[in-house]
Amino acid sequence: YSMAPVNVKKICCIGAGYVGGPTCAVIALKCPHIQVTIVDLNQARIDAWNSPDYALPIYEPGLVDVVRVARGRNLFFSTSIDVAVQEADLIFVSVNTPTKKSGVGAGFAADLNYVESATRHIAAVATSSKIVVEKSTVPMRTAESMRTILEANSKPGLRFDILSNPEFLAEGTAIDDLFAPDRVLIGSLQTPEGKSACQSLTNVYANWVPVDRILTVGVWSSELSKLAANAMLAQRISSINALSAICEATGANIEEVAHAVGRDTRVGPKFLRASVGFGGSCFQKDILNLVYLSESLHLPEVAAYWRQVVTLNEYQKRRFSKRVVDTLFNTITNKNIAVLGFAFKADTGDTRESPAITLIRDFLSERAHVTVYDPQVEVSQIWFDLSEALPDVPLEQIKKQVTIANTALSAAQNSEAVVVATEWKEFRDIDWRAVYDTMKKPAFVFDGRMILDRDALREIGFEVMTIGRGDQL
Ligand code: NAD
């Protein structure tokens, strides 16, 4: 076995989702000399990636332009996993790692079933040595499990070097993040083989990422860094949201507080916006993963510390729903509430763990009628998420209480309140006077994302409630 880094010519990515799709499309774009094949078990998803009119399975600004250039040149989407694995020198494993729903560690631990299946698949079909890269966010020491599985199940004489290369892109800005990442993190075993594999992957990224942004560390540090990064980002949101509750009770203003605190260069101004709470498939899942890890390591105080970040987030969402009900004269039964935004953040169609779902669930349990509008989320996705959020309510019943609108203005028609649940830019630019005219009076706006001009809305006649201000209404 040569210690020289492999000159990567063919890459396979297992998992054509929010991470595998954009990351490997960008690798293909930036490395025309490498053939990149993204594979998935989900035929519909692959068909969408291959669709002639670029109706891609995920919405991400700039993604279509990348796929347009690279697809069919050196970027391919396929369900033929075996061939793609056999041909590749380097394989990304970018499958989903959701929180376990049942069994040991239910509600906390990551479900590693998909990672294990993908790993076993590689072992079963590989006919040459591979570099296998954990792209999925995984519990610590998953690299070790993958290596054990690969070595126990593959043909004799093959080598598998496992790298950890967690993805730090944020949905909504994925393409910009991938073009100019703050850093690329590659973790490997500190053996000659591990370091050589690490160099092979470094060489791929070095095609467009400045080398001083490519950090190479030990594999366990790399796995923990991904959990740590998400935990600390979410912690920042929970910290500002915890302070927003104090503001509301005292008359302080969270935006002034955030600005003042963020001016301290040690704190920094970013990610200090109070809101209805964070969503997305990662923050909660990765923190719970960290909680589970801490408990497994018999570190209960550490577990309790991180768990509180999630608890506070739940509290923030509940607090917001309660304020909507309280403000609407303590009852929303049979009232029309327009919810603007269903995605978990702006510039994505992704709804996983979206705060909008929690809010709507709360409004429906108060027997309100809800009209939803989101510029990107598919109608079928909204029904799917609401049935999941209300498992005891038949979908026909949900459909009686919920309407899906095509525009923000039509969603607001005849409503007593408009609730902004996602920070889509277009919500700022709505003709709010027209919205006001269609609504019942008094007309309430609840800005769960702090994106609206409160004074301008008041000028029109709205009663406005935002987050973290004591001088409400
Ligand atoms: P996703 O659900 O969008 O995509 C995963 C894909 O893997 C699915 O299409 C699924 O069909 C496919 N898959 C599962 N098992 C497979 C198998 N054995 N063979 C082939 N295909 C298989 O998930 P995602 O959002 O892309 O996340 C993937 C991983 O990346 C997760 O571990 C996540 O924590 C991590 N991550 C996500 C983000 C994000 O913003 N979404 C950011 C950083 C890291």
From TrEMBL:
<feature type="binding site">
    <location>
        <position position="40"/>
    </location>
    <ligand>
        <name>NAD(+)</name>
    </ligand>
</feature>
<dbReference type="Pfam" id="PF03720">
    <property type="entry name" value="UDPG_MGDP_dh_C"/>
</dbReference>
<dbReference type="GO" id="GO:0005634">
    <property type="term" value="C:nucleus"/>
</dbReference>
<dbReference type="InterPro" id="IPR036291">
    <property type="entry name" value="NAD(P)-bd_dom_sf"/>
</dbReference>
<keyword id="KW-0520">NAD</keyword>
<feature type="binding site">
    <location>
        <begin position="15"/>
        <end position="20"/>
    </location>
    <ligand>
        <name>NAD(+)</name>
    </ligand>
</feature>
<feature type="binding site">
    <location>
        <position position="171"/>
    </location>
    <ligand>
        <name>NAD(+)</name>
    </ligand>
</feature>
<dbReference type="GO" id="GO:0006024">
    <property type="term" value="P:glycosaminoglycan biosynthetic process"/>
</dbReference>
<dbReference type="InterPro" id="IPR028356">
    <property type="entry name" value="UDPglc_DH_euk"/>
</dbReference>
<protein>
    <recommendedName>
        <fullName>UDP-glucose 6-dehydrogenase</fullName>
        <ecNumber>1.1.1.22</ecNumber>
    </recommendedName>
</protein>
<dbReference type="InterPro" id="IPR036220">
    <property type="entry name" value="UDP-Glc/GDP-Man_DH_C_sf"/>
</dbReference>
<dbReference type="InterPro" id="IPR001732">
    <property type="entry name" value="UDP-Glc/GDP-Man_DH_N"/>
</dbReference>
<dbReference type="InterPro" id="IPR017476">
    <property type="entry name" value="UDP-Glc/GDP-Man"/>
</dbReference>
<feature type="binding site">
    <location>
        <begin position="95"/>
        <end position="99"/>
    </location>
    <ligand>
        <name>NAD(+)</name>
    </ligand>
</feature>
<dbReference type="InterPro" id="IPR014027">
    <property type="entry name" value="UDP-Glc/GDP-Man_DH_C"/>
</dbReference>
<feature type="active site" description="Nucleophile">
    <location>
        <position position="282"/>
    </location>
</feature>
<feature type="domain" description="UDP-glucose/GDP-mannose dehydrogenase C-terminal">
    <location>
        <begin position="338"/>
        <end position="454"/>
    </location>
</feature>
<dbReference type="Pfam" id="PF00984">
    <property type="entry name" value="UDPG_MGDP_dh"/>
</dbReference>
<comment type="similarity">
    <text>Belongs to the UDP-glucose/GDP-mannose dehydrogenase family.</text>
</comment>
<feature type="binding site">
    <location>
        <begin position="136"/>
        <end position="137"/>
    </location>
    <ligand>
        <name>NAD(+)</name>
    </ligand>
</feature>
<feature type="binding site">
    <location>
        <position position="352"/>
    </location>
    <ligand>
        <name>NAD(+)</name>
    </ligand>
</feature>
<dbReference type="InterPro" id="IPR014026">
    <property type="entry name" value="UDP-Glc/GDP-Man_DH_dimer"/>
</dbReference>
<feature type="binding site">
    <location>
        <begin position="282"/>
        <end position="285"/>
    </location>
    <ligand>
        <name>NAD(+)</name>
    </ligand>
</feature>
<dbReference type="Pfam" id="PF03721">
    <property type="entry name" value="UDPG_MGDP_dh_N"/>
</dbReference>
<comment type="pathway">
    <text>Nucleotide-sugar biosynthesis; UDP-alpha-D-glucuronate biosynthesis; UDP-alpha-D-glucuronate from UDP-alpha-D-glucose: step 1/1.</text>
</comment>
<feature type="binding site">
    <location>
        <position position="45"/>
    </location>
    <ligand>
        <name>NAD(+)</name>
    </ligand>
</feature>
<dbReference type="GO" id="GO:0003979">
    <property type="term" value="F:UDP-glucose 6-dehydrogenase activity"/>
</dbReference>
<keyword id="KW-0560">Oxidoreductase</keyword>
<dbReference type="InterPro" id="IPR008927">
    <property type="entry name" value="6-PGluconate_DH-like_C_sf"/>
</dbReference>
<dbReference type="GO" id="GO:0051287">
    <property type="term" value="F:NAD binding"/>
</dbReference>
